[in-house]
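Record 1 of the preview.
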Amino acid sequence: MKGKIFISLLIAGLFFVPVLASIGPAQQNTQRIYSGPKIVFEEKNNHDTNTDALPGNNPKGKPQPPAPGPDKWAVVIGIADYQGSGNDLLYPDDDAMDMYNYLLSKGYPSSHIKLLTNRKATANAIVSAIDWMNSQETQATSECVFFYSGHGTTYDGYNDGDTEYTDECIVSYNLYIVLDGQLRQMFNTFNSQKIAIIFDSCFSGGMDDLETSGRVVDTACAESQYSWDGSPAMSNGVYTYYYLQGLYSQNTVEGAHAYAAPLAQDAVQDMYEADMDPQQYDSYSGTWQF
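->
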């Protein structure tokens, strides 16, 4: 009788193990494709009721004296834990922290960096952080970095100021999408002629709309491709993992991408049997060096 009970429990255990094992991974994806609602965030007419204040936030159009220290400014965003369930990722918040630490090592004061991870990265907070950086950079020589790791998606038929029917987007913690044209309009008000814009997100190769004089745009993948989270040993997105290695060894945006692109491409092919072809759009005069 005891033997029959043991066998029954063993069979039941074998049945439930796959079910239990699927609960965790179902909430966290290695493939950074977004499947949530697609609601466009509009700065002047939105339903983002989050009231989290950003220290030092300054509305666009009301400049304030730049903070003391080097003329280096950054907005760093990483969203692994999205609002609700079903859209969580593995390592974008780690990506953001690692980029933040790299910038600190290159002389960016912590007060010159807006770090937004997970629930802090609401749509309002993202837009406010870009506006804050805009209020701080005042010279053509100001050094500015925008880094985003998280979900990317596309949206059809929205007039965001360009001629594209399908626009590429980033996704805020509270599941609003910010379109490439909206980002372009915000960055087009900057004085700086030294801006690095880096995306580790799906479809980010379509963010070439942001390329203009004085900017380098680096993306994890091509316009129609997905980006991917890495292995536990990496603890980063695949592209960010190699991009950071490139930054530490090269200290230039161009060098980091040249280092990362083939390694990330091969890693995704080996790990997932998928294509991921990082892109660079470079209109900066000379080499973008930290």
